[in-house]
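User: Some background: our group keeps a shared notebook of sequences we're curious about, and every so often someone picks one and asks for a predicted structure to add to the entry. Today it's my turn. The entry only has the sequence so far, pasted here. Could you supply the structure so I can complete it?
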Amino acid sequence: MAKPAPATLLLLTALPIARDDDCACPQPSHPAPALQPSAALYRQAEQVYAQALTSDFTLLFSPAALQGPSVVNRAAWQRWQEFAQPQPLSQPIDALLAEQTLLVPEDASLQLPASLPETLTVWLHITNACNLDCPYCYVRKSSASMSEVIGLQVIEKVFRTAQGRRFRRVKLKYAGGEATLHFDLIERLAERARELSTKSGLALDQVVLTNGTRLRAEQAAWLKTNGIRLMISLDGIGEVHDRLRFDRGGKGSFARVSHTIDDVLLPQGVIPNITITITRQNAAGVAEAVRWALERGLPVSLNFYRQKADSAEELAAEENALLEGMRAAYQVYEDMLPERPFLNGLLDRVQFGAHLHTCGVGSSYLVVTHEGAIAQCQMLLEQGVRRETNDLLSLVQEGAIRNLAVEQKAACRECIWRYVCSGGCPLETYRARGRWDAPSPNCRIYKTLLPEALRLEGLRLLKVNGYL
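Assistant: Of course. Here's the predicted structure to add to the notebook entry:
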């Protein structure tokens, strides 16, 4: 039974877990706003989004919040309302409201400071080969793969780059094609990365991206022993998945994926992150896939794949299909309401924790081709640059992609959600709009679903704290 809301002032919040997908989502590292002396006057922050969750609790979200939203009870809501007139911080709840940037100094402006990323994320394109033939895959298939010599050389240069640029962490993503076709190479590169992590003092995070059809028990045991995470692509349940993810003979792969998860990974304690790519073709089946994953306690990341529409009518029909499918998936989340944080997986390329760029292209992200060339993004594998250097980032700071800060996009400057979606994927925007400073083609979807995603996090906070 849910406990009653307290009469004393209460604020609930949590730091959302960073999402795992096929990009380098930002991991904001700028410091929390410094609280000024108690004599300074504070006021309500600009553009705070408020939503009633129950008769006793309200969700509040500041665009500049470094964490996710907050949930306040009636007493805390009333105290926040008092700051419509600037006044000093005088109660303990005031400091909490200020830490969530719900209160700001009287003369403060809503502008996010630039920050230095702490993590260098590197996509290692292990191979062009794959045992599936998914129709939307952007990799030009061949039998070519990365050699151990090239792989080890790259790992060395990655750590030199990270040290030279003063990153604190290295994140390696082993991908393809199907990276597990060369699992022995992954093992060797991961071993060397751990050695260099220990030697350099840099933290290390490693993830294998896979279609989930080939993993064996001994490989799962190795992943578990070495703390290497797994991301599995799942586009639906049964026939829905098989329609989009099939081998060259046309045979679907869902049975193999479900066997891998249920019979190989979970018995060994390996909890994969499920990434669902949503298209108009599978949108109606997303809710069923989310339920299947949540029943197994698996984290989920929802992503979009959209082809350029030929007409406004086609674009609207596609958007409506995606919105309908996403809302059905959100209803599954509400029905099951996992206690594990899930907010950052609810919407394509969206990350809560205020940030200026959707991804780390040009500043903290590298893609290494199977030949050892360096590219800005995995969508531009064929534009890799090969030049001898110990600073790999220098090869991609100037390239085809202009990764503008969201404040450089005129259409985004006044949007309450600008520091959440940060304007969307820059390359996708350019391909759809023909301009780097244009709003994302997913803009309407973001504006429609972000309030609904925040509501789910608010309900989760109430459940975790025993108020629901």
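Suggested note for the entry: The chain has two domains: 11-113, 119-345. Residues 11-113 form a domain with the Outer Surface Protein A; domain 3 fold (CATH 3.90.930).
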